[in-house]
Write a structure and sequence with these properties.
Elements lengths: L1 H14 L2 H14 L6 H18 L4 H28 L1 H4 L1 H6 L5 H4 L3 H17 L21 H16 L4 H10 L1
Length: 180
């Protein structure tokens, strides 16, 4: 759903047709039903919009209208799920609290710079799993092997390098933010 939502969002930017923003927003909202880390993708899309507003300040009103259509559609399609989470937070939220680094005792005892160092280390470890074997994780079956085979790893790394080089272009920017 992420890719389809982004496709429709960029198609909307290119054609200026509201129907693409509406459909993209609906798909973005439906994405919340699919995977528990999907809310992080919402942050990536919001950062893209902030970048677009900063870059194209002359069209701020049009962009805000498009932003409104996109996010209103996302909220409408996500509303039943969000209502469930609010009404059943004790059943839904414990997984996030358990898995979040921000609730980790080792993280909580650290100060600001040390927390950033820990976050950078965790990010580096997560990135390394694309290329090097990690510990076997019984919850999802990953581990023991890299996530990517050597050829795919080289292509992935090349694509990320190109996107980092061209980060000012929206399509490269959203790729970087989405992967992070």
């Amino acid at each position: 759903l992420e890719i389809l939502a982004l496709f429709l969002l960029f198609k909307g930017f290119r054609t200026q047709r509201r129907s693409y923003f509406l459909a993209g927003g609906v798909l973005l909202g439906l994405g919340l039903y699919t995977y528990n880390v999907f809310p992080l993708f919402l942050v990536a899309v919001a950062v893209l919009y902030v970048m677009k507003l900063a870059k194209d300040a002359g069209n701020r009103r049009r962009l805000l209208q498009q932003f409104g259509i996109f996010w209103a559609a996302a909220l409408a399609s996500a509303f039943p799920f969000l209502a469930f989470v609010v009404q059943n937070s004790e059943a839904y939220l414990p997984h996030f609290q358990l898995a979040s680094i921000f609730n980790n005792d080792a993280y909580l005892i650290l100060s600001g710079p040390d927390r950033l160092t820990m976050l950078a280390g965790r990010l580096g470890h997560a990135a390394s799993l694309f290329f090097w074997p990690g510990l076997i994780d019984g919850s999802d079956g990953f581990g023991g092997k890299p996530l990517l085979d050597p050829l795919t790893g080289v292509l992935f790394a090349s694509g990320m390098f190109i996107s980092l080089w061209k980060w000012r272009e929206e399509r490269h920017f959203i790729l970087i933010v989405g992967i992070l």
